[in-house]
Amino acid sequence: MPDAIMALGGWIGATAAMGLVAALALRGRVKWGWFLGALALMAAYDALLTRGYGHIPLQFWPSDWNWEGKVMALALSLVVAFALGAQRCGLTLKQDRKGLKGALILSGALLALFLGLALYFPTPPLDVDELAFQLTMPGLDEELFYRGVLLLMLNEAFARPLRCLGAPMGWGAMISSVAFGLAHALGYSDGAFTFDAMTMLLTGAPALLLVWVREKTGSLLLPVLLHNFANSIFLLV
What we know:
Blueprint: H1 2-25, H2 32-49, H3 51-54, H4 67-84, H5 97-120, H6 128-134, H7 137-158, E1 162-164, E2 167-169, H8 171-185, E3 186-189, E4 192-195, H9 197-217, H10 221-232
Antiparallel strand pairs: 1-2, 3-4
């Protein structure tokens, strides 16, 4: 547990540091309540995702995959999303027609990329539990948190002053994407932080593209589908 707490501190600390950089760039024009709320939400999310750092004895069925933590984290995101406004968080099937064409073009390119990589790398033995998990939980949980409620709170804190190929983008897009990458790449063990630069690149860069799709369409639908496709296609071909 101490290692997990240290990893959490590093994750939130790095995110807070990016927020301070953003505040300097914006000359203090920041809604600090929203930013501090985002950091608090990250801490609560991590606690539930890890099942209270192993102290919540909840198990749906014997599995090597963290169904329970994902479900609890997803439940937290849903509560926050409905409190802030479900549609504002991207919980809608409605797509912005003006942005849908560009989002579909990028989505098609990403699907082709993931399929090509899956065909290149050897397919692991099929495990039904793993396949069911990858087809559902990563996209549902992580998209609603990172590209939904966390992105909304960061956008409220730092606004979205730029348009990138027609999508409103700002510091929230960058900070949420870096936070997503760090969640996979940053760790703590044996008294020291660990960081995997390749993992950061392979998670942080796609996260920024998924933010663009979410902002372009106003919905989490395509990001969820893309995320789960990317996680599961390596098990299917």
